[in-house]
Specification:
The chain is α/β, with parallel strands linked by helices. The chain is 30% helix and 26% strand. The structure holds zinc ion.
Length: 396
């Protein structure tokens, strides 16, 4: 039996994965008209990964337009449906999970969090999702299984209040989205948890560095997405790439132009195939996130490939300026807490939320150095919170 942390030889893992892939592919082919049509109406047993690599990709658009058609279990076995609105459109993407799908994710959270905390430790969770099977509910359940004490705070709207709760509860570990956790660290440097897990958004190296420097803590990275039932890959204490849930996903990095798989170390689209998904198997699902794998042995002893880095969304990275670059630049400055930006006709405009007393000239200067060819306009945001999540809108 292969589990997330099994350190089996790569060949053995691949044999297990190919067997699971065959099962998932045939099930999806049987249940989904859309998938049958994508495959041209026929399918044969996959004897090797080269056979597998001839299969079509699935994308967000397939889930949006044919989501229900891709459900492979009777309605009564569906435990949870997550509806996601695609940014900028009215389209809704619905992902389906059974009890078993959720249960296996909780086991991953249980195992994956153990290096960070132990029985009796308080873990503050600054993640969204009030539903019991949402991300913070599943994480809480995973933590409770080994006796850690989860506190489901939700997203932070009042940083003073969040800091006060932390000073009362003295969490050993804090879990949250990178930018809000960084802001909490800069607002309340005295909290000093031992460990921090950042997830659910692009983690700029400057964000991870600030959190670790200000709090003197270890920062762990996790990558996950709704389509993966949240959990996907997480760092071990050696911080040398995120260990993938190899029992649940077969991962490929795809060259965006040729559609061919790339070797370890080369950056492309993170693409995965579910191996044990009951409700909605996904085969060669292009996540739209860009990253690369590493096969350098990890300090923990694992020799299996890991997700070395996630650089951002394919769509964003194809443009200049892009939000990931701006994160890297601005979040290296402790004065900057958050921002919203828009770009069009050579003008990059930003509303910046700064630390009290800080001035706009610092951020303005570093942006101008990076984007010599652009006009930079900055404005101080004087409220407590920016309206909505940080973003870069393109006006043309
Ligand atoms: Zn490791």
């Amino acid at each position: 039996m292969i589990t997330w942390s099994s350190d089996v030889p790569l060949e053995e893992l691949r044999a297990y994965q190919l067997k699971c892939i065959n099962e998932q592919v045939f099930r999806l082919f049987r249940c989904s008209r859309r998938y049958r049509s994508l495959c041209g109406g026929t399918i044969e047993t996959l004897d090797s990964f080269s056979d597998f690599e001839n299969l079509p990709f699935l994308s967000s658009d397939d889930i949006i337009s044919a989501g229900t058609d891709m459900v492979c279990v009777p309605q009564r076995e569906i435990r949870r449906i997550v509806s996601l609105k695609t940014s900028g459109t009215e389209n809704v993407k619905r992902i389906y999970f059974t009890f078993g799908d959720i249960e296996r994710n909780i086991s991953f959270f249980d195992e994956g969090m153990r290096p960070l905390c132990t029985a009796g430790d308080t873990v503050m969770i600054f993640m969204p999702g009030a539903a019991p099977d949402g991300i913070s509910g599943q994480l809480s359940e995973g933590l409770s299984r080994f006796g850690a004490i989860p506190v489901r705070y939700g997203l932070i709207s009042d940083y003073g209040e969040a800091a006060l709760r932390c000073s009362q509860l003295k969490p050993n570990t804090i879990v949250g989205l990178p930018v809000p956790v960084r802001r909490l660290a800069l607002t309340a440097p005295e909290i000093r948890p031992r460990n921090v897990l950042l997830s659910a958004d692009y983690v700029s190296p400057s964000v991870a560095d600030t959190v670790s420097r200000v709090w003197g803590c270890e920062v762990y990275l996790h990558y996950g997405l709704t389509e993966s039932c949240y959990g996907f890959a997480v760092e071990c204490p050696y911080h040398s790439g995120m260990h993938i849930r190899n029992d649940e996903f077969y991962v490929e990095i795809i060259d965006p132009s040729s559609g061919l798989p790339l070797p370890c170390g080369e950056e492309g689209i993170i693409t995965f195939t579910t191996l044990r998904r009951e409700a909605m198997p996904l085969v060669r699902y292009r996540t739209g996130d860009v990253g690369y794998l590493t096969e350098e042995p990890c300090g923990c002893g694992s020799k299996l490939p890991r997700l070395a880095r996630v650089s951002g969304r394919e769509k964003a990275l194809s443009r200049r300026p892009n939000i990931n670059e701006i994160d890297d630049i601005l979040f290296a400055l402790d004065d900057v807490l958050d921002y919203r930006a828009s770009y069009g006709s050579g003008v990059l405009s930003l509303e910046l939320l700064l630390r009290p007393g800080a001035e706009l000239c610092g951020p303005e200067r570093v942006l101008q150095e990076k984007y010599e060819e652009l006009t930079i306009q900055t404005e101080l945001w004087t409220g407590e919170q920016l309206p909505g999540k940080r973003a870069l809108e393109y006006r043309d």
